[in-house]
Automatic annotation (TrEMBL):
Residues 346-438 form the M23ase beta-sheet core domain. The chain crosses the membrane at residues 20-40. One of its GO terms (molecular function) is metalloendopeptidase activity. This is Peptidase M23. PANTHER family: L-ALA--D-GLU ENDOPEPTIDASE, PEPTIDASE-RELATED. InterPro entries: Cell_wall_metabolism_enzyme (IPR050570), Dup_hybrid_motif (IPR011055), M23ase_b-sheet_dom (IPR016047). The keyword rRNA processing does not apply. Gene3D superfamilies: Glucose Permease (Domain IIA). Keywords: Membrane, Signal, Transmembrane, Transmembrane helix.
Length: 460
Protein backbone atom coordinates (compact mmCIF):
# COMPACT_ATOMS: atom_id res chain seq x y z
CA UNK A 1 0.00 0.00 0.00
CA UNK A 2 2.80 2.39 0.90
CA UNK A 3 4.67 1.50 -2.27
CA UNK A 4 1.59 2.26 -4.37
CA UNK A 5 1.28 5.69 -2.83
CA UNK A 6 4.95 6.52 -3.50
CA UNK A 7 4.61 5.57 -7.17
CA UNK A 8 1.54 7.76 -7.59
CA UNK A 9 3.31 10.78 -6.09
CA UNK A 10 6.35 10.22 -8.30
CA UNK A 11 4.11 10.14 -11.39
CA UNK A 12 2.50 13.43 -10.45
CA UNK A 13 5.87 14.98 -9.85
CA UNK A 14 7.17 13.82 -13.22
CA UNK A 15 4.09 15.16 -14.98
CA UNK A 16 4.62 18.55 -13.40
CA UNK A 17 8.20 18.72 -14.65
CA UNK A 18 7.10 17.62 -18.11
CA UNK A 19 4.50 20.36 -18.23
CA UNK A 20 7.01 22.89 -16.89
CA UNK A 21 9.63 22.01 -19.49
CA UNK A 22 6.96 21.95 -22.20
CA UNK A 23 5.81 25.44 -21.22
CA UNK A 24 9.42 26.60 -21.04
CA UNK A 25 10.16 25.15 -24.45
CA UNK A 26 7.00 26.71 -25.87
CA UNK A 27 7.92 30.11 -24.43
CA UNK A 28 11.46 29.79 -25.73
CA UNK A 29 10.12 28.75 -29.10
CA UNK A 30 7.78 31.71 -29.21
CA UNK A 31 10.61 34.02 -28.16
CA UNK A 32 12.84 32.58 -30.85
CA UNK A 33 10.02 32.98 -33.36
CA UNK A 34 9.60 36.62 -32.37
CA UNK A 35 13.35 37.17 -32.60
CA UNK A 36 13.45 35.42 -35.94
CA UNK A 37 10.50 37.48 -37.15
CA UNK A 38 12.24 40.69 -36.11
CA UNK A 39 15.74 39.82 -37.25
CA UNK A 40 14.90 37.74 -40.32
CA UNK A 41 12.20 40.00 -41.82
CA UNK A 42 11.74 39.60 -45.58
CA UNK A 43 10.67 43.09 -46.72
CA UNK A 44 13.03 44.47 -49.35
CA UNK A 45 14.19 48.11 -49.38
CA UNK A 46 12.59 50.41 -51.95
CA UNK A 47 14.58 52.55 -54.37
CA UNK A 48 13.32 55.52 -56.38
CA UNK A 49 15.40 57.57 -58.82
CA UNK A 50 14.09 61.04 -59.70
CA UNK A 51 16.38 61.38 -62.69
CA UNK A 52 16.48 59.31 -65.85
CA UNK A 53 20.05 58.41 -66.69
CA UNK A 54 21.05 57.54 -70.24
CA UNK A 55 24.63 58.77 -70.40
CA UNK A 56 27.64 58.75 -68.09
CA UNK A 57 31.08 60.20 -68.49
CA UNK A 58 31.66 63.17 -66.21
CA UNK A 59 30.26 64.25 -62.85
CA UNK A 60 26.50 64.08 -62.45
CA UNK A 61 24.09 64.38 -59.55
CA UNK A 62 21.75 61.45 -59.01
CA UNK A 63 18.73 62.19 -56.76
CA UNK A 64 18.38 58.94 -54.81
CA UNK A 65 15.52 57.98 -52.50
CA UNK A 66 15.82 54.69 -50.59
CA UNK A 67 13.54 53.47 -47.79
CA UNK A 68 13.35 50.45 -45.49
CA UNK A 69 10.70 50.65 -42.79
CA UNK A 70 11.62 47.43 -40.99
CA UNK A 71 15.29 46.84 -40.15
CA UNK A 72 16.68 49.99 -41.81
CA UNK A 73 19.21 50.59 -44.58
CA UNK A 74 22.65 49.06 -44.08
CA UNK A 75 24.37 49.93 -47.36
CA UNK A 76 24.03 51.64 -50.74
CA UNK A 77 26.50 50.55 -53.40
CA UNK A 78 26.68 51.99 -56.94
CA UNK A 79 28.76 50.12 -59.50
CA UNK A 80 29.54 50.77 -63.17
CA UNK A 81 30.08 47.64 -65.25
CA UNK A 82 31.17 47.01 -68.82
CA UNK A 83 31.79 43.45 -69.95
CA UNK A 84 33.94 41.71 -67.33
CA UNK A 85 35.17 45.03 -65.92
CA UNK A 86 33.47 46.91 -63.09
CA UNK A 87 34.22 49.85 -60.84
CA UNK A 88 32.59 50.96 -57.60
CA UNK A 89 31.46 54.58 -57.87
CA UNK A 90 29.89 54.83 -54.42
CA UNK A 91 29.84 52.63 -51.33
CA UNK A 92 28.01 53.96 -48.32
CA UNK A 93 27.57 51.76 -45.27
CA UNK A 94 25.88 52.42 -41.93
CA UNK A 95 26.83 50.87 -38.57
CA UNK A 96 24.22 48.76 -36.80
CA UNK A 97 22.57 50.96 -34.18
CA UNK A 98 20.25 48.36 -32.58
CA UNK A 99 18.89 44.81 -32.83
CA UNK A 100 15.20 44.96 -32.03
CA UNK A 101 14.32 48.27 -33.65
CA UNK A 102 15.45 49.85 -36.94
CA UNK A 103 19.20 49.28 -36.95
CA UNK A 104 19.89 51.87 -39.63
CA UNK A 105 18.23 54.85 -41.32
CA UNK A 106 14.73 54.10 -42.55
CA UNK A 107 15.08 56.59 -45.39
CA UNK A 108 17.89 58.09 -47.43
CA UNK A 109 17.10 61.14 -49.55
CA UNK A 110 20.04 62.89 -51.11
CA UNK A 111 21.77 63.86 -54.32
CA UNK A 112 24.60 61.43 -54.88
CA UNK A 113 27.50 62.77 -56.96
CA UNK A 114 28.74 60.20 -59.47
CA UNK A 115 32.10 60.75 -61.16
CA UNK A 116 32.25 58.17 -63.93
CA UNK A 117 35.56 59.47 -65.28
CA UNK A 118 37.37 57.79 -62.40
CA UNK A 119 35.93 54.39 -63.32
CA UNK A 120 38.26 53.80 -66.26
CA UNK A 121 35.41 52.50 -68.42
CA UNK A 122 35.78 53.10 -72.15
CA UNK A 123 33.15 54.71 -74.36
CA UNK A 124 30.22 52.55 -75.42
CA UNK A 125 27.48 50.56 -73.72
CA UNK A 126 27.72 49.99 -69.98
CA UNK A 127 25.48 49.25 -67.00
CA UNK A 128 24.91 51.27 -63.83
CA UNK A 129 24.08 48.94 -60.93
CA UNK A 130 22.55 50.28 -57.71
CA UNK A 131 22.34 47.92 -54.73
CA UNK A 132 20.49 48.73 -51.50
CA UNK A 133 20.71 46.34 -48.51
CA UNK A 134 18.95 46.36 -45.15
CA UNK A 135 19.91 45.03 -41.69
CA UNK A 136 17.75 41.90 -41.84
CA UNK A 137 19.56 38.60 -41.13
CA UNK A 138 17.75 37.11 -44.08
CA UNK A 139 19.78 35.94 -47.07
CA UNK A 140 22.49 34.17 -45.08
CA UNK A 141 22.82 37.18 -42.78
CA UNK A 142 23.47 39.52 -45.73
CA UNK A 143 20.07 41.20 -45.54
CA UNK A 144 17.29 41.81 -48.01
CA UNK A 145 18.45 43.60 -51.10
CA UNK A 146 17.05 45.62 -53.97
CA UNK A 147 19.10 45.63 -57.16
CA UNK A 148 18.47 48.10 -59.99
CA UNK A 149 20.28 47.81 -63.33
CA UNK A 150 20.29 50.79 -65.70
CA UNK A 151 21.70 50.54 -69.25
CA UNK A 152 23.84 53.60 -70.01
CA UNK A 153 26.12 54.89 -72.74
CA UNK A 154 29.59 56.01 -71.75
CA UNK A 155 30.40 59.41 -73.28
CA UNK A 156 33.57 61.22 -72.19
CA UNK A 157 33.72 63.92 -74.88
CA UNK A 158 32.90 67.40 -73.45
CA UNK A 159 30.65 69.84 -75.34
CA UNK A 160 32.42 72.30 -77.64
CA UNK A 161 31.87 75.84 -76.37
CA UNK A 162 32.87 78.98 -78.27
CA UNK A 163 32.75 82.55 -76.96
CA UNK A 164 30.91 85.04 -79.18
CA UNK A 165 30.91 88.01 -76.79
CA UNK A 166 32.03 88.48 -73.22
CA UNK A 167 31.53 91.49 -70.97
CA UNK A 168 34.56 93.76 -71.35
CA UNK A 169 34.28 95.79 -68.14
CA UNK A 170 32.44 94.98 -64.92
CA UNK A 171 32.29 96.61 -61.52
CA UNK A 172 30.86 95.77 -58.10
CA UNK A 173 27.10 96.05 -58.44
CA UNK A 174 27.43 95.92 -62.21
CA UNK A 175 25.72 93.71 -64.79
CA UNK A 176 27.28 91.70 -67.58
CA UNK A 177 26.31 89.59 -70.56
CA UNK A 178 27.93 86.75 -72.48
CA UNK A 179 26.99 85.25 -75.84
CA UNK A 180 28.28 81.82 -76.78
CA UNK A 181 27.67 78.79 -78.95
CA UNK A 182 27.51 75.12 -77.97
CA UNK A 183 27.97 72.55 -80.74
CA UNK A 184 25.49 70.07 -79.23
CA UNK A 185 22.31 70.62 -77.24
CA UNK A 186 23.56 71.14 -73.66
CA UNK A 187 21.80 69.82 -70.59
CA UNK A 188 22.94 72.83 -68.55
CA UNK A 189 24.94 75.91 -69.46
CA UNK A 190 25.72 79.47 -68.42
CA UNK A 191 28.39 81.70 -66.92
CA UNK A 192 30.45 80.68 -63.91
CA UNK A 193 32.07 83.50 -61.93
CA UNK A 194 34.32 81.81 -59.40
CA UNK A 195 31.76 79.43 -57.82
CA UNK A 196 28.57 81.36 -58.65
CA UNK A 197 26.56 79.99 -61.59
CA UNK A 198 24.33 82.15 -63.82
CA UNK A 199 22.14 80.07 -66.19
CA UNK A 200 22.03 80.73 -69.91
CA UNK A 201 19.09 80.80 -72.31
CA UNK A 202 18.58 80.04 -75.98
CA UNK A 203 18.51 83.08 -78.27
CA UNK A 204 16.68 81.25 -81.04
CA UNK A 205 19.61 81.83 -83.41
CA UNK A 206 21.58 78.72 -84.47
CA UNK A 207 23.26 77.21 -81.40
CA UNK A 208 23.73 80.59 -79.72
CA UNK A 209 22.93 81.22 -76.05
CA UNK A 210 22.93 84.25 -73.76
CA UNK A 211 23.68 84.49 -70.05
CA UNK A 212 23.35 87.59 -67.89
CA UNK A 213 25.47 87.82 -64.76
CA UNK A 214 26.27 90.29 -62.00
CA UNK A 215 28.63 91.12 -59.18
CA UNK A 216 27.25 92.01 -55.74
CA UNK A 217 27.88 95.53 -54.48
CA UNK A 218 30.75 94.40 -52.24
CA UNK A 219 32.44 91.99 -54.68
CA UNK A 220 36.17 91.89 -55.21
CA UNK A 221 37.90 91.02 -58.47
CA UNK A 222 36.79 87.57 -59.69
CA UNK A 223 39.51 84.95 -60.04
CA UNK A 224 37.78 83.04 -62.85
CA UNK A 225 35.13 84.08 -65.37
CA UNK A 226 34.14 81.43 -67.86
CA UNK A 227 31.32 79.94 -69.87
CA UNK A 228 30.44 76.36 -69.00
CA UNK A 229 28.25 73.79 -70.72
CA UNK A 230 27.42 70.30 -69.50
CA UNK A 231 26.05 67.43 -71.57
CA UNK A 232 23.76 64.68 -70.28
CA UNK A 233 26.78 62.59 -69.33
CA UNK A 234 28.07 65.34 -67.05
CA UNK A 235 31.03 66.29 -69.22
CA UNK A 236 32.02 69.95 -68.91
CA UNK A 237 33.05 72.19 -71.78
CA UNK A 238 34.44 75.63 -70.97
CA UNK A 239 35.38 78.89 -72.68
CA UNK A 240 37.12 81.46 -70.45
CA UNK A 241 36.73 85.18 -70.98
CA UNK A 242 38.39 88.14 -69.30
CA UNK A 243 36.41 91.10 -68.01
CA UNK A 244 38.28 94.16 -66.76
CA UNK A 245 37.36 94.72 -63.12
CA UNK A 246 36.68 98.36 -62.31
CA UNK A 247 36.42 99.13 -58.59
CA UNK A 248 34.02 101.81 -57.40
CA UNK A 249 34.46 104.12 -54.40
CA UNK A 250 32.44 103.51 -51.26
CA UNK A 251 29.47 105.77 -50.60
CA UNK A 252 28.48 106.39 -47.01
CA UNK A 253 25.44 107.99 -45.46
CA UNK A 254 23.87 108.39 -42.04
CA UNK A 255 20.19 108.39 -41.11
CA UNK A 256 18.78 109.60 -37.82
CA UNK A 257 16.04 107.42 -36.36
CA UNK A 258 13.64 109.48 -34.25
CA UNK A 259 11.30 108.37 -31.49
CA UNK A 260 8.40 109.63 -33.60
CA UNK A 261 9.49 107.45 -36.53
CA UNK A 262 9.60 104.36 -34.30
CA UNK A 263 6.20 105.13 -32.76
CA UNK A 264 4.76 105.53 -36.25
CA UNK A 265 6.40 102.54 -37.94
CA UNK A 266 6.69 99.71 -35.43
CA UNK A 267 2.89 99.14 -35.18
CA UNK A 268 2.85 98.61 -38.97
CA UNK A 269 5.44 95.86 -38.70
CA UNK A 270 3.75 94.34 -35.64
CA UNK A 271 0.60 94.00 -37.72
CA UNK A 272 2.44 91.90 -40.31
CA UNK A 273 4.82 90.12 -37.91
CA UNK A 274 2.85 89.11 -34.76
CA UNK A 275 5.98 87.74 -33.05
CA UNK A 276 7.00 91.37 -32.45
CA UNK A 277 3.91 92.21 -30.40
CA UNK A 278 4.41 92.82 -26.70
CA UNK A 279 8.15 92.15 -26.67
CA UNK A 280 11.17 94.44 -26.49
CA UNK A 281 11.69 98.17 -26.66
CA UNK A 282 11.03 100.26 -29.75
CA UNK A 283 14.74 100.22 -30.60
CA UNK A 284 14.94 96.43 -30.18
CA UNK A 285 11.94 96.03 -32.46
CA UNK A 286 13.53 98.34 -35.00
CA UNK A 287 16.75 96.34 -34.97
CA UNK A 288 14.77 93.12 -35.42
CA UNK A 289 13.07 94.57 -38.49
CA UNK A 290 16.21 96.11 -39.95
CA UNK A 291 18.20 92.89 -39.55
CA UNK A 292 16.21 89.65 -39.27
CA UNK A 293 13.22 90.73 -41.36
CA UNK A 294 15.57 92.38 -43.88
CA UNK A 295 17.41 89.05 -44.28
CA UNK A 296 14.13 87.16 -44.62
CA UNK A 297 13.01 89.65 -47.27
CA UNK A 298 16.24 89.17 -49.23
CA UNK A 299 15.72 85.40 -49.24
CA UNK A 300 12.12 85.79 -50.40
CA UNK A 301 13.13 88.14 -53.23
CA UNK A 302 15.88 85.78 -54.38
CA UNK A 303 13.36 82.92 -54.44
CA UNK A 304 10.90 84.96 -56.51
CA UNK A 305 13.62 85.96 -58.98
CA UNK A 306 14.86 82.37 -59.36
CA UNK A 307 11.84 81.52 -61.55
CA UNK A 308 12.35 83.57 -64.71
CA UNK A 309 10.91 83.50 -68.22
CA UNK A 310 13.34 81.92 -70.73
CA UNK A 311 12.48 84.60 -73.30
CA UNK A 312 13.66 88.22 -73.34
CA UNK A 313 10.54 90.26 -72.64
CA UNK A 314 12.17 93.70 -72.43
CA UNK A 315 13.58 96.03 -75.09
CA UNK A 316 15.93 99.01 -75.01
CA UNK A 317 16.56 101.04 -71.87
CA UNK A 318 14.53 100.81 -68.68
CA UNK A 319 12.52 103.90 -67.77
CA UNK A 320 13.40 106.00 -64.74
CA UNK A 321 10.59 107.60 -62.80
CA UNK A 322 10.74 111.42 -63.02
CA UNK A 323 11.80 112.95 -59.73
CA UNK A 324 14.77 113.73 -57.54
CA UNK A 325 17.10 111.05 -56.25
CA UNK A 326 17.13 110.87 -52.45
CA UNK A 327 19.44 107.89 -51.97
CA UNK A 328 21.63 105.87 -54.28
CA UNK A 329 22.59 102.28 -54.92
CA UNK A 330 25.11 100.73 -52.49
CA UNK A 331 24.95 103.64 -50.05
CA UNK A 332 26.41 102.24 -46.82
CA UNK A 333 24.13 103.62 -44.15
CA UNK A 334 24.77 104.18 -40.48
CA UNK A 335 21.60 104.50 -38.39
CA UNK A 336 21.75 106.93 -35.44
CA UNK A 337 19.42 107.01 -32.43
CA UNK A 338 19.90 109.82 -29.91
CA UNK A 339 23.23 110.53 -31.58
CA UNK A 340 24.52 106.95 -31.18
CA UNK A 341 25.12 104.52 -34.03
CA UNK A 342 22.84 101.51 -33.52
CA UNK A 343 23.01 99.74 -36.89
CA UNK A 344 24.56 99.66 -40.37
CA UNK A 345 23.01 98.41 -43.62
CA UNK A 346 23.51 98.85 -47.36
CA UNK A 347 20.86 100.47 -49.54
CA UNK A 348 20.37 98.29 -52.62
CA UNK A 349 18.36 100.55 -54.87
CA UNK A 350 17.64 104.15 -55.79
CA UNK A 351 15.08 106.27 -53.92
CA UNK A 352 13.17 108.70 -56.16
CA UNK A 353 10.84 111.35 -54.76
CA UNK A 354 8.12 113.02 -56.81
CA UNK A 355 4.58 114.09 -55.99
CA UNK A 356 2.76 112.39 -53.13
CA UNK A 357 1.03 109.22 -54.36
CA UNK A 358 2.76 109.61 -57.72
CA UNK A 359 1.82 107.14 -60.44
CA UNK A 360 4.38 104.33 -60.71
CA UNK A 361 4.89 102.78 -64.14
CA UNK A 362 6.63 99.62 -65.32
CA UNK A 363 10.21 100.37 -66.34
CA UNK A 364 9.99 97.84 -69.17
CA UNK A 365 7.85 95.05 -70.54
CA UNK A 366 7.58 91.98 -68.34
CA UNK A 367 5.46 89.72 -66.18
CA UNK A 368 4.41 90.62 -62.63
CA UNK A 369 5.75 87.90 -60.31
CA UNK A 370 5.16 89.59 -56.93
CA UNK A 371 2.53 92.10 -55.81
CA UNK A 372 2.12 92.17 -52.04
CA UNK A 373 3.46 93.50 -48.75
CA UNK A 374 7.01 92.43 -47.84
CA UNK A 375 8.66 93.71 -44.68
CA UNK A 376 11.05 96.64 -45.06
CA UNK A 377 9.87 97.13 -48.66
CA UNK A 378 6.23 97.58 -47.72
CA UNK A 379 3.83 97.22 -50.63
CA UNK A 380 6.03 95.93 -53.43
CA UNK A 381 5.86 94.84 -57.07
CA UNK A 382 8.49 92.72 -58.83
CA UNK A 383 8.44 92.40 -62.62
CA UNK A 384 10.30 89.58 -64.35
CA UNK A 385 11.69 90.76 -67.69
CA UNK A 386 12.98 87.32 -68.67
CA UNK A 387 16.35 85.57 -68.67
CA UNK A 388 17.09 86.58 -65.08
CA UNK A 389 16.42 90.34 -65.34
CA UNK A 390 13.92 91.84 -62.85
CA UNK A 391 12.83 95.25 -61.58
CA UNK A 392 11.48 96.05 -58.10
CA UNK A 393 9.16 98.86 -56.96
CA UNK A 394 8.55 99.33 -53.23
CA UNK A 395 7.07 101.52 -50.46
CA UNK A 396 3.92 101.81 -52.61
CA UNK A 397 0.74 103.23 -51.12
CA UNK A 398 -1.32 101.07 -53.48
CA UNK A 399 -0.72 98.22 -55.94
CA UNK A 400 -2.67 98.36 -59.18
CA UNK A 401 -1.59 95.09 -60.79
CA UNK A 402 -1.68 91.37 -60.03
CA UNK A 403 0.71 88.44 -60.21
CA UNK A 404 0.75 86.88 -63.67
CA UNK A 405 -0.11 90.10 -65.52
CA UNK A 406 2.02 90.85 -68.58
CA UNK A 407 2.64 94.59 -68.38
CA UNK A 408 3.98 96.83 -71.11
CA UNK A 409 6.70 99.43 -70.69
CA UNK A 410 5.29 102.57 -69.02
CA UNK A 411 2.08 100.81 -67.91
CA UNK A 412 0.81 101.97 -64.46
CA UNK A 413 1.32 99.40 -61.70
CA UNK A 414 0.72 101.41 -58.50
CA UNK A 415 1.31 104.64 -56.61
CA UNK A 416 4.21 105.83 -54.47
CA UNK A 417 3.90 105.84 -50.71
CA UNK A 418 5.68 105.31 -47.39
CA UNK A 419 4.90 101.69 -46.49
CA UNK A 420 7.64 99.52 -45.02
CA UNK A 421 10.84 101.11 -43.73
CA UNK A 422 10.19 104.49 -45.34
CA UNK A 423 10.13 107.85 -43.61
CA UNK A 424 8.31 109.68 -46.40
CA UNK A 425 6.53 109.25 -49.72
CA UNK A 426 8.93 108.00 -52.43
CA UNK A 427 9.68 105.09 -54.76
CA UNK A 428 12.46 102.66 -53.96
CA UNK A 429 13.52 101.20 -57.33
CA UNK A 430 15.88 98.27 -57.77
CA UNK A 431 17.21 96.18 -60.64
CA UNK A 432 18.18 92.55 -60.11
CA UNK A 433 20.09 89.99 -62.16
CA UNK A 434 19.29 86.44 -61.03
CA UNK A 435 18.35 87.78 -57.61
CA UNK A 436 21.48 89.94 -57.19
CA UNK A 437 20.76 93.64 -56.65
CA UNK A 438 22.64 95.71 -59.24
CA UNK A 439 22.93 99.41 -60.00
CA UNK A 440 19.93 100.60 -62.04
CA UNK A 441 22.03 103.32 -63.71
CA UNK A 442 23.35 100.91 -66.35
CA UNK A 443 19.85 99.70 -67.26
CA UNK A 444 18.57 103.30 -67.50
CA UNK A 445 21.32 104.13 -70.02
CA UNK A 446 20.52 103.42 -73.69
CA UNK A 447 24.20 103.80 -74.61
CA UNK A 448 25.14 101.08 -72.12
CA UNK A 449 22.41 98.82 -73.54
CA UNK A 450 23.61 99.48 -77.11
CA UNK A 451 27.31 98.86 -76.43
CA UNK A 452 27.09 95.94 -74.02
CA UNK A 453 24.04 94.03 -75.25
CA UNK A 454 22.53 95.09 -78.57
CA UNK A 455 25.84 95.34 -80.45
CA UNK A 456 26.77 91.83 -79.32
CA UNK A 457 23.52 90.42 -80.70
CA UNK A 458 23.96 92.34 -83.95
CA UNK A 459 27.47 90.96 -84.44
CA UNK A 460 26.60 87.35 -83.61
Amino acid sequence: MATHIRLRGSSRKGGFFKMFFLALATTAGLALAVVAFLLFEFEKPTLVLDKQIKYLGGRIELPLHATDNKSGISAVIITLAQGDKSATLLERTFPRAAWFKPAGPQSLNEKVVIDAQKAGIKEGDAELIILVRDFSLNGLFKGNRTLTRIPVTMDTVPPKVALVHGQRVIQPGGSGMALYTVAELPARHGVLIDNVFFPGFATGKNNTYVAYFALPWDAGQPEKTRIVAYDEAGNEGTAPFAAVFKPVPDKRDSITISEQFLLQKMPEFEQHYPEMQGTGTLVEKYLYVNNQIRRNNAEAIAKVCAATDPQQLWSDRFLRMPGSGRAGYADQRTYLYNGTAIDTQTHLGVDIASLERAEIRAANRGKVVFADYLGIYGNMVIIDHGQGIASLYSHLSSIDTTVGTLVEKNQPIGRSGATGMAGGDHLHFSMLVHGIFVTPIEWWDQHWIDVNIKSAFNES
